[in-house]
Structures are given as C-alpha cells and as structure tokens.
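Lecture 7 notes: from sequence to structure.

We start with a single chain of 329 residues. Read the sequence below before looking at the structure.
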Amino acid sequence: MASFYTLLAMCGLMFAVSLGMGILPLSVSFSRTRLAQLSTFGVGLLLGAGLGVVIPEGIESVTPANGPVPTHTIALALLGGFAAMLAIEQVLPAHSHAHHAGDGAVPTTPARTHRPRYSVTSDNELDLDLEIELLESSRGGSGAAGANSSAAERGKALPLSLGLVIHCAADGIALGASSLPTSGASANDALPLIVFLALVIHKAPTALALSTSLLSAGLNKPAVRRHLLVFSAASPLSALATWFLLNWFGGGSGVGSWTGVALLASGGSFLYVATVLQPVSPSHGSSSADEITRPMRILLIVAGMFTPLILSSAIEHGHAVVGTGAAAA
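Now the structure, written as tokens:
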C-alpha cells in the first residue's frame, strides 16, 4: 500500500498546483515570456519522460524474464496511445470550430479587439499550446469581431474545457500506471516522481491559460472556479482509477503485462502531446516563437529532455548507497 499512499500524495499536490495556478489570474498578471519558457521546458520534460523513462520501463515490464521481446505488443501499445490522443483531438468540439473558421477563401485570424479583463501581461492573448490556441481561435470568431453574442461566447466554454479535461484524464493514466510495481526494477523508484514532475510542469501554464480564456469568454469568477476544479481533479481521479484497475487486473500485485501496456500507451500519448500539441519547432508568428529566442528554446527543450534521465539516475544511485550501507551494517 506504500505506492498507493505515495500516489495519493502526488495526486493531492497536482490538484493543488493546477487549481492554484488557474486561480492566480483572477487577481494578478503574469509575464508571458516566463510562462512560455516554462511551457517549453515542459515539452522537453514530456519527451524525456516518454522516451527515456516511461517507454523503457514499459518495455521491460512486458518482456518475460527468459522470453522473447514482444515487439508487436510494444508497437501496438505505443501506437494505440498516440492514436488515442490523435482521435480525441479530432473529435473534440474545439477542432470543429477551428476548422470551420478556416474554410473560407479568405484567411482568417482570431479577433484581438475583445480584451479580457484579467489577462497575462502582453499585447496579445496567451498561446502556450495548441489546446489553448483552439480556445482562443474559437473565441475570436472569423474576422467579424463582436458578431457573436456574450451568451454564445459562454456557450463555448463548456466543450472547450471538456477537451482539456479529457487530456488531463489521459495524463492521469500515466501517473497511475507508473505508481504500480513492475517486473523491471531498474527505474521503478524514480518513475512515479519523473512522471509527476513532467505532468505538473505541463499543467501549470495550461491551467493559467485556461483561466484567462474562460474569463475572456465572459464567465464570472465562480463559474471559472468550477471549471478549474473539474480540470484540476481530472488527472488525480484518472490516476487513482488506473491504479485500482491495474491492481485488479494484476491480481493485486500490480505486476504483469497490463502495467507495461499502460506505460507504453502513456508513452505514446506523451510523444503526441510533446510533438503535435506542443510542436518542438514552432511555426513562424506563433507567440512561443516571438517570446523565446531559438537558442533559448533549444536549451530549454534539451534541458527538459535530460532532466528525467538525470533524476532517475540520481534516485537509483541514492537507493543503491542506502542499500549498501544497510547491508554493511
């Protein structure tokens, strides 16, 4: 049960960080540059956690001790996680609004004349990733500023928030699966902490941007807080549900191919979020490209990519030293 209590503590902290970051724009403003830097570092963390820790641990978990490597299972799990996030993105209501906005012969851009009362310190809207870009493009209209009524603007808040909640639930699966014991002991102690760190840094700026977008859509503060509560609770609840389900499928021990498959699917979803939702190479004119120089962006992504591996090695070394000292005693 020690792993469950650790997971419970991480879920509580994740909920508090997401909710706290989301509530802050209700009273204070933030530098867009710092948030863009944090979001870029989060891209590297997701890549490093997926490629360097989660996927290797998943492969080790699904591979029998003295058997062949199940390449088909590994490939299906990775592709399944990636494809699931792709399908969610295409089905979400936000995409339909964004696609319709670009169907005309004349290119359209989000209207910038309607400024939120509470916003990030900037001349433009905050745009940390594709999810928030869709929030803004849907809110902005198709070149006819002010054409939509305030009621229509508020009506968009629910489906757009729902899209982010679904993404959060998918992220929670990774945290829940990583908190279970696996058949591979090489990175087991470090894995939950690394996944937790990557998710928290990814969610903090997203929660803040969601809050500013909801305020811009005309929601009052109590309504924004309700949306943020659901958004903040999605990942923790999904992580706890995953932990219980995998424990049940694993006969209570948590050891087995189901945990490895869940880790691999989570690794695939991490890669999708890091490379598609938050492209490593931003398009010209994007807010991220404007706020961060190319060398700084490369530095932040590379630093984020290697951070999970460094943390994993440090935690393993610490446990090895403790184990050696206990054995000598």
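The CA atoms of residues 73 and 261 lie 8 Å apart. Keep this in mind for problem set 3.
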